[in-house]
Amino acid sequence: MTDRFALRPENRWFALVVLCVGFLMIVLDSTIVNVALPAIQTDLDLSSGGLAWVINAYLIAFGGLLLLAGRVGDLVGRRQVFLAGLALFTFASLLCGVATTSGQLIAARFVQGVGGALGSAVILGMIVTMFPKPAEQAKAIAVFSFVGSAGASIGLLMGGVLTQLLSWHWIFIVNVPIGIAAFLLARPLLAREPGLGLSAGADVPGAVLVTGALMLAVYTIVDAESWLLGGVAVVLLALFVARQATASKPLLRLGLLRNRDVVGANVVQMIAVAGMLGMSFLAVLYLQRVLGYDAFTTGVSFLPISIAIGVLSLGFSARLITRFGARLVLLPALAFMAAGLALLGQAGVDGQYWIDVLPALLLMGIGAGLVIPALMTLAMSGVTPEDAGFASGLVNTTQQVGGAFGIAILATVAANESGGATDPASLVAGYNAAFMIAAALAAAALVLAAVVLQRRGAGTETAVEAEPAVLVG
């Protein structure tokens, strides 16, 4: 049997499932911790500041390394980087699960972030090279988008169930068998990609500049008092761009940034995700602190948004994008998202889930189920196979930076509007103000998308023109 042979369609779809299982495990970890935070704080005797670092340590490593991880995938092979990230993430999950001190947990969360960045940064690049035909590519991206957008809500449900029935340790330990299974299945399924070679773009100074800039940017977002570091991040990012313009073998070909759809889709995504993930964080607090829900009930309450995202992204988004084009699907979807956020901004102290929360979640689920696949299609449009890993890392980076920014901004708005009070009326005043800001962000994303993204014929947003991927024997 030869070492390489054509990958049959059914095997490519199975490979996609394995990639998405690995990605889901990473995505879940961004929210599965949220509902377990009170239990972690009590068990490890953490201060509020220390508790925040259980989240921040992961975000800084994850968001800071995504671009570099994507480019490393282009150079040394995306399969190799994915497998390395999957293994590191699984090992770090075990360390988190057995942690007995806050220091151990926070350090392991940082390592988790490194593994998550390596594993997730290259997946979209692998998908668009495995499925070069527009119709198949739209379906594959829809599946991937569902995992990314619904995973956050599923994480809230799983976090509540595992924390309440077992303990917070299990929100991490559950990753271990999943990670091992995904690794063992991925090895024979995914194509051996030699990559371009380090000599094609091993720009060490550029790598240091962009990684430092992103880590400092995320740190500034999650810790608003470190605004001086934000200035340093801007300077480092400017130096990185200057370096790429003059380096003989740059990490980033600046021509990619002249692609109007790629840049526009990433900016729109960052703004939209800021509103969506910020809403998710505060909606949990509204359900628990105002309506008195426990961790399990809170998780179950988010099931409708996951179902709506699944139905739209898996059942309709590919056909709609193929028929009408990603831009025309994106615009009304953003309007649905903005409407849902605005409706949630009307929920009161005596709010009822079926009247005040569920309709808003369904509108946001419909919006997200179409927004994410359309944006990912646009963000990878016209990207060459050589830059697919970097473009994939860029998509993930704007998601993470947007999410961190949204949580930081909306949490600050909520705290300021409530005046620091903890009675239900004050809390609701803060949450409502934050939800309306989130709606404004979604509306701004809609306007930007309408103005910046190019009008194209239906079904023309082919992400990467490449030969079909192969199965390794």
TrEMBL record:
It holds the Pfam family MFS_1. The keyword Cell membrane applies. One of its GO terms (molecular function) is transmembrane transporter activity. Gene3D superfamilies: MFS general substrate transporter like domains (1.20.1250.20), Multidrug resistance protein D (1.20.1720.10). Residues 15-457 form the Major facilitator superfamily (MFS) profile domain. SUPFAM superfamilies: MFS general substrate transporter. The chain crosses the membrane at residues 12-37, 49-69, 81-100, 106-128, 140-162, 168-186, 198-221, 227-246, 267-287, 299-321, 328-347, 353-376, 388-413, 433-453. It comes from the Bacteria. Its main location: membrane. PROSITE patterns: MFS (PS50850). Keywords: Cell membrane, Membrane, Transmembrane, Transmembrane helix, Transport. It is a multi-pass membrane protein. GO terms for cellular component: plasma membrane. It is found in: Cell membrane. This is MFS transporter. The lineage of its organism: Bacteria, Bacillati, Actinomycetota, Thermoleophilia, Solirubrobacterales.
